[in-house]
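User: Can you model how magnesium ion sits in this protein?
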Amino acid sequence: MSNAHVRPVVELRSLTRSFEQGGVRIDVLRGVNLDVMPGEIVALLGPSGSGKSTLLQAVGLLEGGFGGEILIAGHSAEKSNANARTALRRDHLGFVYQFHHLLPDFDARENVVLPQLVAGAPRKDAEARAEELLTALGLEHRLDHRPSQLSGGEQQRVAVARGLANRPDLVLADEPTGNLDEATSDRVLEQFLALVRGEGSAAIIATHNERLAARMDRVVRLHEGVLE
Ligand SMILES: Nc1ncnc2c1ncn2[C@@H]1O[C@H](COP(=O)(O)OP(=O)(O)OP(=O)(O)O)[C@@H](O)[C@H]1O
Ligand SMILES: [Mg+2]
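Assistant: Here's the modeled complex, given as structure tokens:
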């Protein structure tokens, strides 16, 4: 079957980003090109400081200061105003951060429900979706626990469920299990991968875990500001 007519969920064209620090300019991204197809899971590797988080921030449309072009589902980010960018993020992107930023006053279920309400889902549907995702991650007995009542691995799984709640076309994950011990990290990343695959979402996952990276659809490496 030909995929020629299928549009990538994200296209990066000659993406650049430099930082100026104490009069010194660092060129972190020097012309990154990347296409991610629907459903494709891409591992983003590279040493500490190589620009993985910077690249994910660019794709997440959270910050300016980038050169080149970013297209999300065919829509140019530069040509979109602030409202249109917010809509692109809401309609296409999901985020899983290393430091999960769960809302401390809400339980696990509600942390996964809230982004769906923001996106306009009815509460009943949002709750069903939250319970389905949290159950798939083995948290069916922790739905009513607040973040402070969950272990680190459990909190990370809630963050995974939250990132997938709105059925994003593209999940952006920045070392989603970076602050967990190795065995837990492996297990959560396995569950995360299985869930993303089951949902049919595409993903860009920054990780230092070579073993799990090898199980994704494609591995790209940041080296001296470009992907290889
Ligand atoms: N706001 C900023 N101001 C100045 N320099 C920055 C800024 N953000 C990032 N940098 C620099 O850009 C480079 C890339 O940082 P980035 O966080 O993208 O690396 P990374 O690949 O995610 O590393 P790690 O694996 O440690 O998370 C680093 O040298 C960092 O010091
Ligand atoms: Mg980083």
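A couple of observations from the model: Residues 52-53, 174 surround magnesium ion (ligand 2) (CB under 6 Å). Residues 182-199 form the longest helix (18 residues).
User: Helpful, thanks.
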